[in-house]
Amino acid sequence: AQSVSQHNHHVILSEAASLELGCNYSYGGTVNLFWYVQYPGQHLQLLLKYFSGDPLVKGIKGFEAEFIKSKFSFNLRKPSVQWSDTAEYFCAVNTGGFKTIFGAGTRLFVKA
Amino acid sequence: ETGVTQTPRHLVMGMTNKKSLKCEQHLGHNAMYWYKQSAKKPLELMFVYNFKEQTENNSVPSRFSPECPNSSHLFLHLHTLQPEDSALYLCASSQDGQVNEQFFGPGTRLTVL
């Protein structure tokens, strides 16, 4: 069965530290890839997406993600986190049609 | 009102009650979704509607009954729920199945006593 694995359930960083959140999926065909973010008290919103083209995609608030097809990965990165980046981050994979598979999420806490 | 709205935001119900969750999207999208979000578990897709037609039913128990009267409105009718059904229920919409970026509502926090 298709699945999405997020390696870290909880991450704690200090401000200005670099961030990398891992995401791997199990599907051998064409995929559309997403990172969603849920800030405290707010609804899930799209951070960035990859459909095709340049495997390095840039999203809002300085986030970027790299699609490495050979590794079935779509890791999220940010060079320098801020306290306001404290949130839960979800990786998601769509293999066509309406069914999108979400990972279990990574809770990021950034210490001021 | 913009985006995706859900009512109520919080709901407490007994196992014998019947209640309904409502979702409305103001984005002109054609597809709408119900998800269940439980602590420490991935979002679970429950139902998908495209142009009012159900396209996905992810083996959801019959005590959850969806209704989609038009592309802008989606309901989830609840009856004889179990305590393990307590969760955050999220509604989302997307333009269609090809452009599958989803826009989420704030969710309904459901507690079943």
Description:
- With 112 residues, chain A is mostly beta strands.
- Helices cover 0% and strands 54% of the residues of chain A.
- Chain A has strands spanning 3-6, 10-14, 19-21, 23-26, 32-38, 45-50, 56-58, 64-68, 73-78, 87-94, 100-102, 106-111.
- In chain A, the strands form 3 sheets. In chain A, strands 2, 5, 6, 10, 11 and 12 form a 6-stranded mixed β-sheet that branches. In chain A, strands 3-9-8-7 form a 4-stranded antiparallel β-sheet, with no helix packed on it.
- In chain A, β10 (87-94) and β11 form a beta hairpin.
- Chain B is an all-beta fold.
- Helix content of chain B is 0%, strand content 57%.
- Chain B has no helices and 11 strands.
- Chain B has strands at residues 4-7, 10-13, 18-25, 31-37, 44-50, 53-57, 64-70, 73-79, 87-94, 103-104, 108-112.
- In chain B, strands 2, 4, 5, 6, 9, 10 and 11 form a 7-stranded mixed β-sheet that branches.
